Amino acid sequence: MKKKKAKSVALLIESSNAYCRGMLQGIAAYMHENEQWSIRLPELERDAPPPRWLKTWKGDGIIARIENEQFADALRFSKIPLIDVSAARCIPKLPLVEIDEAGIAEAAFDHLRERGFENLAFCGEAKFKWSTLRQNAFVKRAADAGLACNVFQPLRSSRGRASIDRETKELAKWLQSLPRPVAVLACYDLKARQILDICREIPLRVPEDIALLGVDNDEVLCDLATPPLSSVIPASRKIGYTAAQSLDHLMQGKKLKHHIQLIGPLGVATRQSTEILAVEDLDVAEAMQFIRDHQSEHINVQDVMAVVPVSRRSLEVRFRKIVGRTIYQEIIRLRIDRICQLLVDSKLSLAQIARRTGFDSVEYMSVAFRRAKGMPPGRFRRNQP
């Protein structure tokens, strides 16, 4: 039998950052589970122009992060099946697989609020549409909770060293103007690293004055930061896997069920930059600390009350006012977050996960998980590439 020719697929995705490398890993995972493709992967930088060979390339499919008009012009009238993985949406008619920015904002907000922060801020990069979407979602989430969010808005200036120096000075001035303690969500880890550098120079203490949270969970950048940087974990592998699956359907002549697919984050990788409680109510702070320290044990509200010497009614009212959830809801939420992490990052059985997260049985854990996530834990694990 004549060997079937492998489909030729171009991956127009930069490999210079952890988020995009995660997408590439997800694409590889799908390809290895299904049909092997002949991959063309040019070396691209962020906001780079399209490769010259693209004009005459006769491949079978493309997955592209279309971030600028040059790239859009090169692909706008392409007859080749194409999946976009950029929030820029330079070609709105293309099928899109991307981060759910509302999910990123929700994960960041919950992480910072569970530490008691009422002063919130966002620092972004206006030139990136995904940063603006992330900002808007975070500001809205704060507003829905009755909180204001201070946003860094750099003045427009020309490119070059002078522009970078000017923005650094503006950013330093903005950081100094924020009420303290404050929690800052940076649009991505590189921006968070810039803020850390400025805080050392001013100086401002992290996390005592400013708790700092990034996005992308670039482990090298985060672990080399001083202090190590907490970061929202995007499901970049799942985004890549889903994009590859969608492209495969298009190359087979099938129609996609969903034109736009938004993938929520996996959670938050907690490191020293947010490891602090900013709660003036000492009883609520003690309750929150106890729950966090014992979240994997079989604790209940009575256990919390045993270490906080006030009436249950008083603590419940104050706890809900500050945290936005009841004590019981906070215990369950943290345990569900831990289950998600173990489902994604480990090969532990459901019974082992149930024991490690304080549930008496897999059945009880599954009921609580389904109530929180809308699906059983087994399906949640299977949905991860």
TrEMBL record:
Pfam families, A to Z? HTH_18, PBP1_XylR, Peripla_BP_3
What are the record keywords, sorted? DNA-binding, Transcription, Transcription regulation
Please name the InterPro entries in this protein's record. Homeodomain-like_sf, HTH_AraC, LacI/GalR-like_sensor, Peripla_BP_I, XylR_PBP1
The question of whether Transcription is a record keyword is answered with: yes
**Segments crossing the lipid bilayer:** none
What GO molecular functions are on record for this protein?
Answer: DNA-binding transcription factor activity; transcription cis-regulatory region binding
Q: Where is the HTH araC/xylS-type domain?
A: 285-383
Query: PANTHER family this protein is in?
Result: LACI-RELATED TRANSCRIPTIONAL REPRESSOR (PTHR30146), XYLOSE OPERON REGULATORY PROTEIN (PTHR30146:SF24)
- Name of the featured protein: Xylose operon regulatory protein
Chain's gene name: xylR_1
